[in-house]
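Sync notes, pocket subgroup
Present: LS, DG
LS reminded everyone that the earlier model was apo-only. Rerun requested with AHZ included. Inputs:
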Amino acid sequence: MAPVATSDLPPSSTEYDISENYEGQYRFAPIEEAEVSRAMVKRYFNTLYERAVSDVVIIGAGSAGLSCALHLSNHRPELKITIIEANVAPGGGAWLGGQLMSPMVIRKPADGFLKQLGIEYEDEGAFVVVKHAALFTSTLLSKVLAKPNVVLLNATAVEDLIVHEDFDGQQRVAGVVTNWTLVALNHDSQSCMDPNTITAPVVISATGHDGPMGAFSAKRLVSAGLTKGLGNMRGLDMTRAEPTIVNNTREVVPGLIFAGMELSEHDGSNRMGPTFGAMIASGIKAAYEAIKILDSSNILRGKVVSKKA
Ligand code: AHZ
């Protein structure tokens, strides 16, 4: 089935009797309710149709997932990058700094990312401070969403992983199993609400530390028997935690990369609390790891079928 065309746009607004007058004469172009429905539905479902096979799926649009998406898109604009975010509001824990205060601390050298985003900050020597974490998150989000190759499906939860036996006989994460978050939260009260799937040769999981939704893939690897147990996030140590998270960001099982605080739950490494440089740098490292996998694999219809010679 071919996707529905999105080119049947209404005539240009200059043909309508419109007026942008704020003295009581403001007139909109005419509209039919059905046109509004179709404008949304055809685009949204075309997107689901097209992204049923993606090049990279990123689970979680927090600071690590969004930094990863931007870096990956900047370096590989041809890739279909699909971000799945369970919340209605993307951004994860990066709308505020520590203890719900607005300033955001970022340790050097991750301030380079702020320069790239054009975000101003105060330099405190070893670290910098953005006046409001929401300035960081909204700017990053706007840059990610403006990328033609990035799709964000929010209010959508990953509720399982696709796991195939690969060409080597190894268990490989081959995509994600999704559902509307409101459905995912109601499996106990309604029967049989089956999910949807997205196939991808690389999945990057950045779902944060454990909580109502966090550490999703780390926990699923354990319950699926793909890893022995959770390492569990350790106590706060900024000095140790940040380089450990960044330097260990990697493919943990074939096809699945962990980034951000989810890695600390998997590995059993320290938390850093309210300093965000490691989330940015872990996202960037995850993007490089994804590129390595894609460049070293032969991929057919979203599946890794062999390694390149
Ligand atoms: O909604 C979650 C959040 O936006 C989303 N998410 C979690 N489970 C999901 C699922 N499907 C889809 N099953 C899901 N989305 O993942 C995002 C995680 O963002 P985050 O900000 O919580 O994680 P991060 O690793 O990018 O940044 C963590 C920053 C730190 S460090 C720290 C500490 O040390 O105490 N605390 C925080 C918040």
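DG: The chain has a mean pLDDT of 95.
LS: DSSP finds nine helices and 16 strands in the chain.
Action: DG to write up.
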